[in-house]
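---------- Forwarded message ----------

FYI, see the Polyprenol monophosphomannose synthase record below. Original note from H. follows.
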Amino acid sequence: MQDTLVIIPTYNEKENIEKIIRATFSQKKAFDILIVDDSSPDGTARIVKELQKEFPKSLCLQVRKEKNGLGAAYIHGFKWALKKGYDYIIEMDADFSHNPEDLERLYEACAIEGADLSIGSRYSKGVNVVNWPMKRVLLSYFASRYVKIVTGIPIHDTTAGFVCYKRRVLETIKLDKIRFVGYAFQIEMKYKAWKHGFTLKEVSVIFTDRTEGESKMSKTIITEAIFGIISMRLKGLPK
């Protein structure tokens, strides 16, 4: 068992799953991987089970019975990671929008540079996004600016989903009280960590939109992020 677990949530990612697993295991630093699959009808979990024969100690799989949001999948993974005793837990997408070569940089920001939570940031040094339509770039960028203004959180990419947590952050945040499931889940986790006094550090990365499989983005997720944050800020969130 390694000290760091990479959690990859999946739903219909058969085109990407083997490639992202192999790319993660090919890094200089050794990582364990947990795939949290929401019962993908395309057979994603079957592919992972076959790969477990090759990586029996470092590749794990949890299959959830229902698809009820990215946030719920990550919380399932977080609880599993804490139970297993990992010191560092990293969120990463399956579609190569997050580059596995950046995993070690996120890890080092926490393990060596002292951050409690490190964020693979698209916007800390300009706008580092590839293959997105301009409309989507602007929506994402200004959504993060909006969240920063409304909440006061001192980071540029509040909706980023490429994140490394020290275990004490996840132990401190009451995971069962996380309210949001989409983009706002990522914001809520960072906001609560910051409110608890943990140190957040942005690591500049290049985000590349998926080339295979289908995007999971929806208007509902975006609406939750925009209007949910107002509610979060005005009403306050339980820690």
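H. also flagged this: The two ends are 31 Å apart (CA to CA).
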